[in-house]
Amino acid sequence: MLHLTLDLGAVLLLALGLKGLSKVRTARMANGLAAVALVLAVLGLLLEQGLTGWSWMLLGLAAGGGAGALVAYRVPMTSMPEVVALFNGCGGMSSLLVALGAAALPAAGGRAALNRLELVSVLVSVLVGAITFSGSLVAMAKLQEWLATPGWTQRPARHAVNIALAAAALAFGLAWPMGWLAAPVALAGITTASLLLGIGLTLPIGGADMPVVISLLNSYSGVAAASAGFVVGSQLLIVAGAMVGAAGLILTQVMCTGMNRSLTSVLFGGALGASTPSGGGGAEAAVDDQSYSRVTSCSPEECALTLEAAERVVFVPGYGLAVAQAQHSLKELARLLESAGIEVAYAIHPVAGRMPGHMNVLLAEADVPYEQLIEMEAINPDFPRTDVVIVLGANDVVNPHAKTDPNSPLYGMPVLEVDQARSVFVVKRSLGAGYSGIRNALFELPHTSMVFGDAKAVLQQLTAELRTLGVGKVPVTAGR
Amino acid sequence: MSEALWVLLLGSLLGFELIGKVPPTLHTPLMSGANAISGITLLAALALIAQAPTPALQLVGAVALGFALFNVVGGFLVTDRMLAMFRQRGNG
Fold first, then answer.
1. Which of residues 192-251 of A touch B (CB under 8 A)?
2. I need a surface site. Which of A220, A249, A297, A462 has the fewest CB within 10 A?
3. In a domain, B70, yes or no
4. Helix/strand/coil (H/E/C) assignment for every residue in B36-78
């Protein structure tokens, strides 16, 4: 009876945990509750089945748990999305291995033959687990920019390839219980086809949509876990897997809405902005420097002079800030401006960076006060009374075309209306296109100046320039 | 076995209801937390190890357990790291 109590306690805590994770105040405790739930679940299971094979359990515990803790503490905050993808892929791999192992159990004399429901569950676990694994690894590689979006993946033929792979997976899946193929051959077939399918489905999707993909793959790993629950006859596993699968689906939907994208266009539409109207093979969406005319650039010195005269400055952080690890330099500049009586705020676009909430995490790490991080809806009306906006490695989220040009792929996406400010400085390494490969009309506005350079270096130069201009020196009382 | 299907149905409905409005700030931590929970497939790996009659299958179970624990331990710790920053910020 004790193990049942533990199981029920685990389900209760998991539900409370998922619920609490969606509110800022309770999120951290909820995460702890969910962790406790997993410990209860493991205790319950061990109580029920005993410690047979404990040395193997210890081995898995030490290797997996140790590696997980190491990665979790070592990884820089900027690569959080990639790491979530990696963890997720490993969850999928686990379900895949368990299902393959369970399929081999009856022949090895470990259990009675699988019934029909268990057969289907093994197949679902293998299929979904493999897709989760390879899909997550592709997503991780894309976020790390180890992998570009190859041009050939943008052709409609990719759908045919994916359908063929799915059909192959199903055929192997059918061949196994029907005895058309030897079990190892059939299972190897479905595993291979599913792994390739995971790659085929994820590879054509542009980097900007990766967060949605990871969220969806996270939902898949819940499904894989639930079906593994059927295989081993664990109702707790079924309930937990189903909960995560469903919650992940809802979160995916919420994220799509936030990015003004539909799930189908993310999954099957190809990379955003990757297809050129001329239909050529140029899926790289090369927006080269020549396509920008009328761009003014300026030096950090000029920018500093404008900053010195400003009363209100708004920073717009983006992925460039994260790449340059410039959050601390930004905070230093902001502190200097504030000491000179200049009002400073940070405009946070919900999808700035590579993942929703990415910028909040990054700036929180640099101890930027909570009240200065202002969400898009709240700060947009304030841009007209803002003297200087400094855009730091953000691009698509400040593109005015999203409001004005119905032909733009970004049209309809809510953006930060920085073009309303008196002057705009865009700190960027080059005039290259944004992550989604779309040209930005902001760069050509008469009151916009480009400051070319690495975000961190430019911010440090600005701080140094302002210091030489005497900004932030111990004020009036000192006299001279 | 039909019991298990009821469990599946009710679990899914629960999952759909649990997540309602989520502020964008929490999208990443919530995804990461849910991802850690999905590592609960470690239960299946433990069951496999216990049932496995041969060392080869026990090894498969142990590797599966390793992958699942990598997901669980890493997932919860990374989520906690992210959320800890929000708390600091609230106090500051």
1. 211, 214-215, 218, 221-222, 224-226, 228-251
2. A297
3. yes
4. HHHHHHHHHHHHHHHHCCCHHHHHHHHHHHHHHHHHHHHHHHH
Domain for residue B75, yes or no?
A: yes
A201, A135 in Cβ contact below 8 A? Answer: yes
Gap from A148 CA to chain B (nearest CA, Å): 23
Q: Is B6 on the interface with A (CB under 8 A)?
A: no
Nearest of A477, A454, A17, A408 to residue A244 by alpha carbon: A17
pLDDT of residue A127: 95
Number of domains in chain B: 1
CA-CA distance, A148 to A210, in Å (whole number)?
Answer: 12
For residue B33, the chain A residues in CB contact (below 8 A) are 17-18, 21, 27, 30-31, 34
CB B34 within 8 A of CB A11: no
- Domain contains B16: no
For the stretch A221-237, pLDDT in tens is: 999 999 999 998 889 99
- What does the block give as tokens for A25? 């105040």
Per-residue pLDDT band at B1 (split at 50, 70, 90):
low
Active-site residue, A454 included: no
Unique residue bearing structure tokens 């955003």 = A272
Q: CB of A471 within 8 A of CB of A336?
A: yes
* DSSP alpha helix (H) spans, A203-293: 210-232, 235-258, 263-268
Can you tell me the distance from the alpha carbon of A142 to that of A149, in angstroms, rounded to the nearest whole number? 8
Residue among A31, A241, A245 minimizing CB distance to B79: A31
Residue B7 falls within a domain, yes or no?
no
Stated pTM of the model:
0.78
Rg, chain B, Cα only: 18
Instruction: Give CA–CA dist A129/A223, Å, rounded.
Output: 9
Query: Which tokens sit at A173?
Result: 């899946």
Cα–Cα dist A445/A130, whole Å:
48
Single-letter code of the amino acid located at A78: T
Three-state secondary-structure class, residue A274? coil
Q: Which domain holds residue B58?
A: 22-91
Of A7, A209, A396, A419, catalytic: A396
Closest CB from B13, B25, B50 relative to A49: B50
Q: What strands, in cross-sheet order, belong to the sheet with A423-428?
A: A373-375, A343-348, A312-317, A388-392, A423-428, A448-452
Please say if the pLDDT value at position A480 is more than 50: no
Residue A2 Cα distances to A6, A48, A54, A127, A389, angstroms: 6, 9, 21, 35, 61
Six token digits for residue B17: 């209801």
ipTM of the complex: 0.92
